[in-house]
Design a protein that fits this description.
InterPro entries: MnmC-like_methylTransf (IPR008471), SAM-dependent_MTases_sf (IPR029063), tRNA_MNMC2 (IPR047785). This is tRNA (5-methylaminomethyl-2-thiouridine)(34)-methyltransferase MnmD. It comes from Chryseobacterium tagetis. The chain is an alpha/beta fold. It is built from six helices and eleven strands. The mean pLDDT is 96.
Length: 224
């Protein structure tokens, strides 16, 4: 599928798929959305010394980058192991044109951005000290066959239900839930009623949160 670079309202870029009429991120602001959904309402709510994050899916790598940015603000006495699934990796030209490192003041971010995208698939790579990334090229429904540690935090960042409804139905959420311990947190930009009901059926406590710019609500779900 053909993809093109578009600039969102906060000045950060995203990819747009013409055939699906779908952006990888909110047109109201790619960076703002990532920081609001996955950092403010995700990473910042986890206090474990070792945090295992599962992301569906890797996409442009923006969620990894904002997670590293937040991690570097801390005392770094904890470890993050970040597992990211992606079926359709972006190409070198797209990586170059997105240039997400330009969004951050830290001069090291150009090297960090390149290291994220150059990291070999299927192998864990230490991006910065204490932050380990493993990119896994697969269909999301292969998750049940992937060996992972217990996942404290899930970034559920699939394409919207309008274009990929099967990714927002019970079978995939069930696979994700099976990877999580009690008190594990799932965060997503979606606030669909059907998603809330599925998560409740899977024994999650679901909370509606204020959404990122341009979206009224989003979901946090804690496994009981």
């Amino acid at each position: 599928m053909k993809r093109e670079i578009k600039t969102t309202k906060d000045g950060s870029k995203t990819l747009f798929i013409n055939e699906l009429n779908e952006n990888y991120h909110s047109h109201n602001g790619a960076l703002q959305e990532a920081e609001h959904v996955f950092i403010k309402n995700g990473l910042n709510l986890i206090n474990d010394c070792e945090i295992n994050i599962l992301e569906l899916g890797f996409g442009t790598g923006l969620n990894v980058l904002v997670t590293i940015n937040e991690y570097l603000k801390t005392d770094k006495n904890h470890i993050i192991n970040y597992f990211s699934l992606e079926k359709y990796p972006i190409n070198e030209s797209e990586i170059k044109d997105l240039a997400y490192f330009e969004l951050f003041d830290n001069p090291e971010f150009k090297n960090i951005y390149q290291k994220i995208h150059l990291a070999e698939w299927e192998k864990p790579v230490e991006i910065v000290k204490g932050f380990n990334l493993k990119k896994i090229e697969c269909d999301f429904f292969d998750l049940k066959n992937i060996a992972l540690p217990e996942i404290n935090l899930v970034y559920f960042d699939c394409f919207g239900a309008r274009v990929q409804p099967d990714l927002w139905e019970k079978p995939l959420f069930e696979m994700v839930a099976d990877k999580m311990p009690v008190n594990g947190l799932l965060t997503t930009y979606s606030s669909k009623g059907s998603v809330r009901r599925i998560l409740q059926e899977l024994n999650f406590k679901v909370e509606k949160k204020q959404g990122p710019p341009g979206k009224r609500e989003m979901i946090n779900a804690v496994k009981l």
